[in-house]
Amino acid sequence: MGLYPLFADLAGREVLVVGGGEVAARKIAALLRAGADVRLHTRDIAHPDIQAAVDEGRITCLHGEFDPAWLDAVWLVVAATDDQAFNAALAAEAGRRRRLINVVDDAALSTYQVPAVVDRSPLVVAISSAGAAPMLARRVRERLETLLDPATGALAALFARLRERIRAALPDLALRRRWFERILDGRLDPVAADPEALETAFLGELDAAGTRGAVQGSVSAIAAVEPDLLTLRALRALNEADLILVGPDVPRDALEPARRDASRVDVASTDEAASLALRHAGDGERVVYLYVEGRGPGGSEAVEAACANAGVAFRRIPGVALKIS
């Protein structure tokens, strides 16, 4: 491991940014979101976002010729200029004062790197290639963006705020772990966009789990489509499934994105699918029913009705259905 990964608490702490263009604007925006006290030195503010932040008093401007003594008053330094000689001299001054510096697009001069970030605050995922392959780090970030639901951050905040209540309701570690998995695997997807509804549903799930003393699984119904037409939610469900129930005429390639160690059972009817889904979800498993839209009576409705009657979590994940001639 070439770099030591860490997350810095910059709230209220001084950070010096040198430069006034597009790159500096991106760095400043991220620092302001983290609550940093940004100090800026530039001969020319060339980006409207920087000018707006200065006009609104969110940035402190340092005027005149650059003074190396400014480094003594800051925690971090960002060099975002296209003057290589100046950047090298600034990096040397920062090193003498034991200040960490990021020189944009120059890993050799930098003593810290700014990673590609997936922000689901308070959950934050950072990816770095140590400056060797920034495009690779960005590609990994793009893939993680699709895997982490936007509601993940709101759930993380609830987990943190209600930590003691969760432990009191579910004192058994194994039971608590299964409950966490159930919540994270999409149990609350239908209300995720509404913070108040999300918290209400979250507390309801917690109270119900504490009362039951056991954690049920869940059932998801997905219309079989070509793998590249699956929604992100369907991909997550297939990758998290413990059991996949495969309906009649489902093409084999529709199973390609599924979790490799998930059990797979062919079912001849929706009644059989409903029976197996209820049994395994009752044992705490995550069940996916993969079916062809319009094939046979009931589609996924029979499975949904059986889950509703038994009080088992069910969700239909929409997709583009295959047409069977």
Fold and architecture overview:
By secondary structure, the chain is an alpha/beta fold. It has four domains: 14-114, Rossmann fold (3-Layer(aba) Sandwich); 115-148, Sirohaem synthase, central domain (Double Stranded RNA Binding Domain), CATH 3.30.160.110; 149-215; 216-325, Tetrapyrrole methylase, N-terminal domain (Cobalt-precorrin-4 Transmethylase, domain 1, 3-Layer(aba) Sandwich). Helix content is 40%, strand content 17%. Residues 321-325 have low confidence and may be disordered.
Distance between the termini: 55 Å
Number of folding domains? 4
CATH topology of the largest domain: Cobalt-precorrin-4 Transmethylase, domain 1
CATH superfamily of the largest domain: Tetrapyrrole methylase, N-terminal domain
- Computed CA radius of gyration, to the nearest angstrom: 26 Å
Total helices: the number is 11
Order of helices and strands: EHEHEEHEEEHHHHHEHEEHEHE
Fraction of residues in H or I helices: 25-40%
| Strand content range | 15-25%
Structural class: alpha/beta
Q: State the CATH class of the largest domain.
A: Alpha Beta
Could you give the order of strands across the largest sheet? 3-2-1-4-5
Low-confidence residue ranges = 321-325
User: Which term fits the overall shape?
Assistant: elongated
